TrEMBL record:
<keyword id="KW-0206">Cytoskeleton</keyword>
<dbReference type="InterPro" id="IPR000195">
    <property type="entry name" value="Rab-GAP-TBC_dom"/>
</dbReference>
<dbReference type="GO" id="GO:0005856">
    <property type="term" value="C:cytoskeleton"/>
</dbReference>
<protein>
    <submittedName>
        <fullName>TBC-domain-containing protein</fullName>
    </submittedName>
</protein>
<dbReference type="InterPro" id="IPR035969">
    <property type="entry name" value="Rab-GAP_TBC_sf"/>
</dbReference>
<feature type="domain" description="Rab-GAP TBC">
    <location>
        <begin position="52"/>
        <end position="255"/>
    </location>
</feature>
<dbReference type="GO" id="GO:0005096">
    <property type="term" value="F:GTPase activator activity"/>
</dbReference>
<comment type="similarity">
    <text>Belongs to the BUB2 family.</text>
</comment>
<dbReference type="Pfam" id="PF00566">
    <property type="entry name" value="RabGAP-TBC"/>
</dbReference>
<keyword id="KW-0131">Cell cycle</keyword>
<keyword id="KW-0963">Cytoplasm</keyword>
Amino acid sequence: MSPSTPSSSTKERKKYNELLNSVKLTEKISDIEIEEKLKKLRRLIVLYGIPTSTPNLRPLVWKLLLKVHDLDSHQYLKLVSKGRSSVADKIRNDASRTLKSDVEFQRIVGESKLIRLLDAFAWRTEEKSDGESLYVQGMNVLAAPFLYVQPTELEAFNCFSRFIELTCPLYVLPTLEGVHRGLRLVDKCLQIVDNKLYSHLRRHNLTAEIYAFPCLCRFLLTNTSDKFTAVLTLSACTPPLDQVLCLWDFLLAFGPHMNVLCVIAQVLLMRDDLLSSSSPMKLLRMFPPLDAQPIISIAVTLVRDIPEDVSVVANKYLGIPLTTLRYTMIWLDIVLTHGKTIRM
């Protein structure tokens, strides 16, 4: 994948607009037709990315991928009117540190919108789970891209809620069960795709639980002694934000389970330095600035190396349908087999 020229960018925008208009202009569309259009949309994303020259394109694509169509403003206002939730102190503590050093994020989103959305989500989960809020640390970072990308708070709330509740329910349990499973998958997949690097890290007592979970994030946190995670936040904690959004285009298109391979891709980009280092943890303590294009390119090519039994295990990683995983692996493999590789 490479930066688009003005002419190619225009062609890509045209392809996106034609596809999106075909969805909007169709009053009644079957589930089969929707899935066919989503396949085309995913293909555009994996081959070209989403052109940034059209500001309203990414918000529309994200909503389509998440199947967010109906926006219930009354419900959101009702949740907001309840005020502080039972986890309000946690939310405010987390919100105060979220993307604090990103001036553009603070200008567009700021702390108050993030707090309001998270309080509303906490109330929503309490209503659905007999008074127990399902808010966990890390949701603040997962909500941030939606607030930054979507034009309204209502749209951001609906996208965030659907993303959390339907695409990665195990990911945000209080026990972080899905995250720990994901970390074990990082180790398993790294061993499969690069046993030499995996063995080198193991000789230094390094597993994903150590280097991928508590990576220090200068971008996310103002206090550098605090810890966060590339796996928990789907790499949203690694700067710069514009590259996070490009990576999320891919993750929303093919599923957050692909983040396992994206984390591995980030490690592989450091491979030579890690293998030559007697203290690799010093390098892994903070991932380099995010560059979405090579990460996606590597992650897509790694798909072929992952056996089906590991894909089955990944089903339990986030609690997503196994058919989604198989579709991802098979479809990406078809793209590669027919020579439609990501442009480097």
